Amino acid sequence: MPPLLDPQDVYAGARPGQLSPAVRGIPDRVYVPNSVRNTVDVIDPQTFKVIDHFPVGKQPQHVVPSYDLKTLWVLNDLDDRLIRIDPSTGKPQESKQVKDPYNMYYTPDGKFAVVVAERVRRLDFRDPQTLALVESLHVPCRGVNHMDFSPDGRYLIAACEFSATILKVDVATRKLVDRVMLRTGAMPQDVRLSPDGRIFYVADMMSHGVHLVEGDPLKVVGFVPGGKGAHGLYFSRDSKWLYVSNRDEGSVSVIDVKTRTVATKWPVPGGGSPDMGGVSADGKVLWLSGRYHAEVYAFDTSDGHLLARIPVSRGPHGLCVYPQPGRYSLGHTGNMR
Prior knowledge:
The protein is mostly beta strands. Helix content is 0%, strand content 49%.
């Protein structure tokens, strides 16, 4: 794995303006997969307007950058297919058959693409270039959906939303090494490693907040109450704040990373369903899909006011803000190091 630029901050390589040569000249765009309409909308973040719209496969869930930052993949869950987008043109290209691609990540060393095959309860380790299957790990839980990696890339932590379970997987051996149950009725969603690498934040839609989970050994060490339907997790570009989208409440909780408390909350005026998204390359805008409102929200990160509310097709989900700062991609939108 490429060494961390700062041992005290795993996201030091993703500061504003720290763009890799691989993404030079790529236009700023927001790619929105619409799971209900089986389409992708493309937004110009300068004008807050949809400038392109094209069909993809069945139930596109996320748009994911490749490890080398040169490709975007549309993950068509029910179509068992990935569609390549050339980010230099914003246009769809060829597709690849991949079983049940609900989500996809890359190991920090770039050796594997890890397809999160939620429906068939697997983590599929694939060649990052050809996407040929190398090894499948069957997981003992329902609804495996999101994950993140330890600071050294040695293991990953994954959430299973329908089993209230957190998994720990050894990346080198591709084996399950531990698991822990959350409180009864919990529904874990997004997972993010803290900037200092000491804990993992795990959003929980039914507990309405964020669990604090240590990875080695695996254990839950705390909980931060936030908002109803806590779902997506995104760090500010200076690593000081964690933005938590509260889908059922229609708000964003802003957690102070240092104190691990909610500093403020940003409501969607008139209500909404903020879901998945990412932070702009300059750190000034938080973009979130409005899952059940057929819209995308753009929040000003300086004070949380809503800059724009952009109509899109039905079912917007794991949108991708691109390009992103960072030396390589871990896959899930906004997770660059």
